[in-house]
């Protein structure tokens, strides 16, 4: 790294020359790097946005236009550019949707900052003015928003389908949007209505069929077969289900050692002991009336052996083995039962009850469905189908975004128009506010207002329309008081977007502007990069 030039002493005692060139160069380099990341995802904004094909180092191919996924997979090395990747992650966790929008806004703001800095305005003044403008922008958006009730299912479906319309699987939005709404509403806790935990919605992917076959299952789905190596049952009505975290197999020694058996009688005794050990365990299980066993995957030794499967089959107990450790919490919450860590703690009150547990053939493989669960917890399962892995993965990502949109509406029950309408309205109102402000602040706020026009401009550009004509017409319509006028990319013209049912949660827009402004302010404040090796 180059050294920072020391101040050169002049003949006059009061004046000294400080070289600010390096600080400007660092700031300039940071802004250029961050803008290049924003420009990379800009083309994938909106319903007519392009998709990106990502080839990872492990030869995995991903096709997506989800901003968070694209940036996550990009190997960004420049520190300031990495901040934009983190920015899209923040938006993903805060709102779930608008991950491309937030990066595009940040890129446009950085472009305007570059202009302001070149005019000699100090970075601190620019930073403070951006903060003021973002606070004002949130107020304007809140004033534009339309309140929505959770009972108004149509509005929730409209906002979910707006989110899905910009995805690869947009043709299935009529199926996936109501499914996302029903899934979220089924896990809302009446005691804490504004809190929705998306971990209560489990998405199970199964290859085969088409996205049309995707369904919401009121119960549990396992992407595995029933263990019927020994001819055990594959269907069980009036199931009493136990989730066990111990192994039904012969115990091992505590330390790594080998036991030498010298004659047959000793060998016979070992096998006899093993049999009686397993039998006594299965008798205890059977005594509680349990007829379905979910066995957690074991690291130390086999969770079940062929011998134990044979005895379980004879006892008419249906066995699902290799249940992942991180699924246990979801399963016990759904079944309203307790996990059992030791055979001595096996009690009938720890069991879950369901009307039916059965193995179903799907595509090439089989799945296990548990339905009709008694006293079921506030959880639900979505079974996603698709003709190939690329489609299934993209359907899962799109569904996650739709679920997040509905979650946003549950948390903050306001809707706002889409299609670039809020951004143009913000731009107009902030532009008018900038004229009232004095000094440098007015310039900075005007720059913020101009930066927001990047969203309608990009939407028009990606849809193959003339962006300058469209944005000029949009400004004109908003100036006449049509605050919900936006770009209808399907018709290629400007219409009232609320009437076209293109809506999004207020939280997505407010979060995007707040986070983008925070990120830009942080990049502006950096005046040097120190590398520590």
Automatic annotation (TrEMBL):
Protein name: T-complex protein 1 subunit delta
Family: Belongs to the TCP-1 chaperonin family.
Signal peptide: none
Species of provenance: Clitoria ternatea (Butterfly pea)
Function: Molecular chaperone; assists the folding of proteins upon ATP hydrolysis. Known to play a role, in vitro, in the folding of actin and tubulin.
Region (Disordered), start-end ranges: 1-21
GO molecular function, one term: ATP binding
Bias type Basic and acidic residues, positions: 12-21
Cellular compartment(s): Cytoplasm
InterPro entries for the chain: Chap_CCT_delta, Chaperone_TCP-1, Chaperonin_TCP-1_CS, Cpn60/GroEL/TCP-1, GroEL-like_apical_dom_sf, GROEL-like_equatorial_sf, TCP-1-like_intermed_sf, TCP-1_chaperonin
Ranges annotated as spanning the membrane: none
A GO cellular component annotation in the UniProt record: cytoplasm
Keywords, alphabetical: ATP-binding, Chaperone, Cytoplasm, Nucleotide-binding
Keyword Flavoprotein listed: no
Compositional bias of kind Polar residues: 1-11
